[in-house]
Design brief:
The chain is mainly alpha-helical and 466 residues long. The chain has two domains: 271 residues, no CATH class; 103 residues, no CATH class. It has 21 helices and four strands. A four-stranded mixed beta sheet has the order 1-2-4-3, with helices on one face. The longest helix is centred in the first third of the chain and has 40 residues. The protein is globular. The termini are far apart.
């Protein structure tokens, strides 16, 4: 149901590409496939050409590059929609691992979808969601750890590190679940090795320990993160904000209720991820994925102490028993195949890809060869995708590469703040491709720049009318 909803009702065949970073992820993966090597320096921009670059999600890029080669953007849309659907399936498995209520889980599903779809994008963080859920489900279910399981944990965490930078959550989860066992078991067995393994296993990546220092430096650079929209607090006044507010409230209340029931590890998880979610919109899906099942488990245990709730609980158990016999997972290949066929319908296939009302789909063909082009980061990933990386861009979404000082300079130019002209002239632009609502357009026109092309999405300007 989630797969169909994401692709067709949510219009994921287009909305999954509403962040242009999908473009450079695809082209990076294709380049790795073509050359057999990882990029070590920036191949895409003229402002950072040749400078060191960490393609820290190279494994995800490789996979999506292969998918794109085989099935184009339709295949990429299906791939990420399938991952999103798999995340919902794992989310329900987390409820069952916690022995939570079936009906409450179903009632919470709209909150999950409403909160996660703000980051339903064709980007590697969706893979990170699956690893995070799998790690917590494993920690909940495993009672003792053997040497064989330690090897599996090593492989799992190393793979995570090569697919997405959220691998740093693995040792945090391991520590929380080891501490959970301390009051109840004097003999922890091999459990204390789990945090050590999950901390060291990510070293098995092409960048070695430099990946650690780079990710740590990026996530602790407050000046840089303060200039990146998805790391800012969510605007709870936005459309759909009410359901996200409800998700956060349920998450915090569920964690508090877990504390009263003696499940301190659930309380710690609730406080940790709720804090992350309130500080950064990017973490809100993690709140829904991890904390709604924890809240359900807390509510279920509370209801078990109420005589009036017994009929409701028995009915929910019956539905769960029925659900087990439905073999829903067996239908997944059939649904995937059906969705792929639907994506190939001419009308849908023609609309699949980067939304033309958000990206310069029509304007691109009007950009002259060899133009030294200014375009905002919103357009950068699309330009990389459209040109197969051949057109060198000014700026894109790889903020860790460009740094805080560059973002300051960029903001000064786009907002036409004092000193913008000096910064602008230093880059020697010949053309500018801008969204129509940018105040930089009239400012450039006053300097003699002229419109070469304009449509409902973007304006292309040329210096001196050339």
């Amino acid at each position: 149901m989630t797969l169909f909803y994401c692709l067709f009702l949510f219009q994921g065949y287009q909305k999954l590409f509403r962040d242009s970073d999908a473009g450079w992820h695809i082209r990076t993966g294709e380049a790795i496939l073509q050359t057999g090597t990882l990029p070590r320096t920036d191949p895409y921009s003229f402002t950072r050409a040749g400078q060191p670059w960490f393609a820290w999600e190279w494994g995800s890029d490789l996979i999506v590059g292969a998918v794109h080669r085989a099935a184009g953007l339709s295949g990429v849309a299906l791939f990420y929609a399938a991952l999103i659907a798999a995340g919902v399936w794992l989310w329900f498995r987390f409820h069952w691992a916690l022995e939570a209520n079936f009906l409450i889980a179903c009632a919470m599903a709209p909150l999950l979808l409403s909160t996660c779809n703000i980051h339903w994008l064709a980007r590697p963080h969706v893979i990170g969601w699956l690893f995070l859920l799998a790690a917590v489900i494993y920690a909940e279910r495993v009672k003792e750890i053997s040497l064989r399981q330690l090897i599996a944990i090593t492989a799992f965490t190393a793979l995570w590190a090569n697919l997405h930078a959220s691998f740093f959550l693995a040792p945090i989860i391991a520590v929380i679940y080891v501490l959970r066992r301390v009051p109840h078991s004097p003999d922890l067995g091999l459990w204390p090795l789990a945090p050590v393994i999950t901390f060291l296993a990510p070293l098995l990546n092409p960048y070695g320990h430099h990946l650690y220092t780079h990710v740590f430096g990026y996530l602790t650079d407050s000046e840089l993160l303060s200039r990146i929209g998805e790391f800012q607090s969510f605007d709870f006044h936005a459309a759909g904000g009410g359901q996200i507010i409800a998700t956060v409230i349920v998450a915090i209340a569920g964690g508090a209720l877990a504390l009263t029931q003696g499940r301190i590890h659930h309380f710690v998880l609730a406080m940790l991820f709720s804090t992350m979610g309130l500080r950064s919109a990017r973490a809100l899906p993690l709140v829904a994925l991890l904390l709604l099942p924890i809240a359900n488990a807390s509510i279920t245990r509370w209801l078990e102490g109420s005589a009036r709730a017994q009929r409701f609980l028995r009915y929910s158990v019956s539905l769960r028993s029925l659900d087990k016999r439905m073999s829903g997972l067996a239908w997944a290949p059939v649904v995937l195949a059906a969705c792929f066929v639907l994506l190939r319908l001419p009308g849908i296939q023609a609309a699949t890809g980067f939304p033309p009302d958000q990206f310069p789909v029509a304007a691109y063909s009007h950009i002259p060869e060899g133009a030294r082009l200014f375009a905002p980061d919103k357009f950068g990933g699309y330009l990389i995708y459209r040109s197969h990386g051949a057109r060198k861009i000014f700026f894109d979404g790889r903020s860790d590469l460009y740094g805080a000082e560059f973002l300051k300079q960029y903001a000064r130019m786009t907002q036409v703040r004092p000193g913008w002209r000096e910064a602008w002239d230093s880059f020697g632009f010949t053309h500018a491709l801008l969204p129509n609502d940018y105040s930089l357009i009239p400012a450039l026109e006053q300097l003699g720049w002229r419109q070469v092309y304009r449509d409902g999405t973007a304006t292309l300007l040329a210096r001196g009318g050339t």
